[in-house]
From TrEMBL, chain A:
Cellular localization per UniProt: Cytoplasm, Cytosol; Nucleus
One GO MF term: histidine phosphotransfer kinase activity
Protein name: Histidine-containing phosphotransfer protein
Keyword Phosphoprotein applies: yes
GO biological process: cytokinin-activated signaling pathway; phosphorelay signal transduction system
Organism of provenance: Linum tenue
Gene3D superfamilies (UniProt xref): HPT domain (1.20.120.160)
Function: Functions as a two-component phosphorelay mediators between cytokinin sensor histidine kinases and response regulators (B-type ARRs). Plays an important role in propagating cytokinin signal transduction.
UniProtKB/TrEMBL annotation, chain B:
Swiss-Prot/TrEMBL keywords: Activator, Cytokinin signaling pathway, DNA-binding, Nucleus, Phosphoprotein, Transcription, Transcription regulation, Two-component regulatory system
One GO BP annotation of this record: phosphorelay signal transduction system
Keyword Transcription among UniProt keywords: yes
Domain annotation Response regulatory: ranges: 35-150
MF (Gene Ontology): DNA binding; DNA-binding transcription factor activity
Extent of Polar residues compositional bias: 181-191
Family, per entry: Belongs to the ARR family. Type-B subfamily.
Name of the protein in question: Two-component response regulator
Species assigned in the record: Linum tenue
Database matches in SUPFAM superfamilies: CheY-like (SSF52172), Homeodomain-like (SSF46689)
Record has Kinase as a keyword: no
């Protein structure tokens, strides 16, 4: 997980988890998946258009970056920032290249998180085990 | 509540009362239970924020869309203590939301964004955000947001409490800095002075934070008129709080008060220039197009008043403003749209204390509610005040400030009448604003609002306050109303009303009344129109008429007919009899100033007089 997640931020989420919301972290992450999947899709579509609407792209990426950072997705966030640089420069090529990177990091992150939750479920306390799978 | 609060004793009593007034029982365990509204289009962030806030033991309401948030806030004006909003949102720019909330509800707003570039943060500052958080937001940052609520309340409280004669300068203790920071962008010296006062004022604001009473300065129509007049005189660019304060010459008013008001006003102006002012659509809803004769004004008055009355929220002031507005109409004829940050005004009083809210034109009725509470304070003073508020709300667009001022003071009381609620004395049926004459009505306005406070401060003749004691200087409210009226132009009605009130003593108003008359004519005179003029400004029942005869007649025709216009007495008591206005009474000056302003004369000259209630015998107020 090293490098993928900003532990400080992720810790914040973990700390928010309590008896009232035992699955908080997973819920948040699930929400993030959903939302980010939507954004990724929108970005891809926007990139395919011609001419590219950089403003829209920038706006999508801003959102994506924001939610990624809120769960502590460090690498994804970094790639997003880079992407936005290209956007602002109006560099379509750069955007596309960077976006590939973004997607790569994003996928990797998801995998890691999946593993994380699996482990947490197994190793976690009883209540965790009760989590609906 | 204690009308006496206004006098300056606000601190304790108000504080306590504030607590009780506040719907939320937060005060006791503050900041536990702080009611937060969080707006963000990012569901992930929203979820995390909500959880964090709940962990801080706050009450949270989340929205993913700004429009939704605004409508919730408007529908429940007193339901939230603070708003946290994202900057980048698809349906509305975060800064726009910030402005709206600041002007309409006057709640502290915190901006947040993943964007930490200096320009964006600066934008937050200039738009009036009380804080800016960088995403990802940490829970530690959220733990302290309650400080903004306290700060804001204290500032307002301080303002109201200024009467103690604290120099306007830097009255505000340190905390004001934050709250007003955005406004101080333009006024650096103002900020400094605030800091200076820090030490001095500490004692005063020492309210227990828990109460967070905010004795806000109620920007009555009149007061606002004065303010606008001063601003116009100085030129919007050169209008610095210090100078404005000097021009206004309202004892008890501090520079802080002016500064924060100015800030709001600026935002309001900006908004107007950028956005088509919704012309107090709110007002429309409120105001029934009652005033066939007068046109817009009447509606304003009628609606507002009624609404106000209904809500009981609007302090008389609003009525006053409405009236003023109405007057303004007459004077200006074209709605001197002095972009009065009516909205703010309303917020002012919508807040827990009966603040003098002047012309919050934009305020949705909700605010009125707030105001209503305050007004209730006036006991006896019928909700007259409220209608005013409504008016104010409506009039947002109206920039009747000028008119209002004059009238407001007087009309304040009159306006008050407007509220359906039983007239101040409880005697008069709303139907007729006779109650207005109760004199208390006028005053009532003030009573309910912190007018008293303000009055004291603003230099309202203490007498007035004293007189009004029962009634609470309703003038202030009128002010608000005027503002509203201004927007609506309908306000004219009210203006007349206000005038009427003041006129009891003097008929001089005749002149001014003319102006008012036109505008106010629309206003429902319900109680007042005592008839003489027909204008309904029953001010003291007869005094007005006599004096106003000259004017009243002219005016009366316009507005005073109000009786007719306003379907329900409740709504528009405002009947201002034209002759009532101004010149003679201190109010007159205001009025004339207002009128003048409206007419483009520029400036409220005699603003000073406004507070001069001495001129009138309150008793005269037409009962």
């Amino acid at each position: 997980f090293q490098g993928y997640l900003d532990h400080e931020q992720f810790n914040q989420l973990e700390e928010l988890q309590d008896d009232a919301n035992p699955n908080f972290v997973e819920e948040v992450v699930t929400l993030y998946y959903r939302d980010s999947a939507r954004l990724v899709h929108s970005i891809e579509q926007a990139l395919e258009k011609s001419p590219i609407d950089f403003n829209k792209l920038d706006s999508y990426m801003h959102q994506f970056r924001g939610s990624s950072s809120s769960i502590g997705a460090k690498k994804v966030k970094a790639e997003c920032s880079l992407f936005r640089e290209y956007c602002r420069a109006g560099n379509g090529e750069g955007c596309m290249r960077t976006f590939q990177q973004v997607k790569k990091e994003y996928t990797a992150l998801r995998k890691k998180l999946e593993t994380f939750f699996q482990l947490a479920r197994q190793a976690g306390p009883v209540d965790r085990a009760r989590r609906p799978k | 509540m204690n009308p006496s609060n206004g006098k300056g004793s606000v601190s304790t009593s108000s504080r306590v009362s504030w607590k009780s007034n506040e719907a939320a029982p937060v005060a006791d365990q503050f900041p536990v239970g702080l009611r937060v509204m969080v707006v963000d289009d990012d569901p992930t962030c929203l979820m995390i924020l909500e959880k964090m806030l709940r962990t801080c033991k706050y009450e949270v309401k989340r929205c993913s869309r700004a429009e939704e948030a605004l409508s919730i806030l408007r529908g429940n004006s007193n339901g939230y203590d603070i708003v946290i909003s994202d900057v980048h949102m698809p349906d509305m720019d975060g800064f726009k939301l910030l402005e709206h909330v600041g002007l309409e509800m006057d709640l502290p707003v915190i901006m947040m964004s993943a964007d930490d570039s200096k320009s964006v943060v600066m934008k937050g500052v200039t738009h009036g955000a009380c804080d800016y958080l960088i995403k990802p937001v940490r829970i530690e940052a959220l733990k302290n947001i309650w400080q903004h609520v306290v700060r804001k309340r204290k500032n307002e409280w301080k303002e109201v409490d200024q009467q103690s004669g604290s120099a306007d300068d830097g009255q505000q203790p340190k905390y004001s800095e934050d709250g007003d920071y955005s406004s101080s962008v333009n006024e650096g010296n103002w900020r400094n002075s605030k800091r200076r006062k820090d030490d001095d004022e500490d004692g005063e604001d020492r309210d227990d934070t828990s109460t967070l009473k905010k004795p806000r300065v109620v920007w009555s129509v009149e007061l606002h008129q004065q303010f606008v007049g001063a601003v116009n005189q100085l030129g919007i660019d050169k209008a610095v709080p210090k100078k404005i304060l000097e021009l206004m010459n309202v004892p008890g008013l501090t520079r802080e008060n002016v500064a924060s008001h100015l800030q709001k006003y600026r935002l309001y102006l900006r908004r107007l220039s950028g956005v088509s002012p919704h012309q107090n659509n709110l007002g429309n809803s409120f105001m029934n197009p009652q005033d066939p004769g007068y046109g817009p004004l009447s509606t304003l008055n009628g609606i507002d008043l009624q609404t106000l009355a209904a809500t009981g929220q609007l302090p008389a002031q609003s009525l006053a403003t409405l009236q003023a507005a109405g007057l303004g109409r007459a004077v200006v004829a074209a709605k001197s749209r002095i972009p009065i940050p009516v909205v703010d005004q309303r917020n002012l009083f919508s807040f827990e204390n009966p603040k003098l809210s002047f012309g919050d034109t934009q305020q949705p009725p909700q605010h009125l509610n707030n105001g209503g509470t305050q007004i209730n304070m006036l006991h006896g003073i019928p909700t007259n005040m409220q209608p005013k508020q409504l008016v104010n709300l409506q009039h947002q667009g109206n920039s009747l400030p000028t008119v209002q001022n004059v009238q407001s003071v007087q009309s304040g009381s009159l306006l008050m009448q407007m509220t359906d609620q039983p007239p101040l004395r409880g005697q008069q049926p709303m139907g007729n604003y006779n109650s207005i004459s109760q004199s208390s009505p006028m005053m009532n306005l003030s009573s309910s609002y912190p007018l008293s406070n303000i009055q004291a401060k603003s230099g309202f003749p203490e007498d007035l306050t004293s007189e009004m004691k029962g009634s609470t200087p309703g003038f202030m409210p009128s002010y608000d109303i005027f503002n509203e009226l201004n927007h609506q132009q309908k306000s004219h009605d009210w203006e007349l009303q206000n005038v009427g009130l003041t006129f009891n003593a003097t008929q001089q108003a005749n002149n001014s009344i003319d102006v008012l008359g036109t505008s106010i004519a629309a206003s429902h005179h319900s109680g007042f129109s005592s008839s003489s003029q027909g204008s309904g400004l029953t001010r003291n029942a007869s005094t007005v008429h006599a004096n106003n005869n000259n004017n009243a007649i002219s005016v009366g025709q316009h507005r005073m007919n109000v009786n007719n216009f306003y379907p329900d007495n409740n709504s528009v008591r405002v009947k201002l009899e034209p002759p009532l206005f101004p010149e003679q009474f201190g109010q007159d000056d205001l009025m004339s100033a207002l009128l003048r302003q409206q007419q483009g004369q520029g400036g409220i000259g005699p603003a000073e007089n406004d507070f001069d209630f001495d001129g009138y015998s309150i008793d005269n107020i037409p009962v």
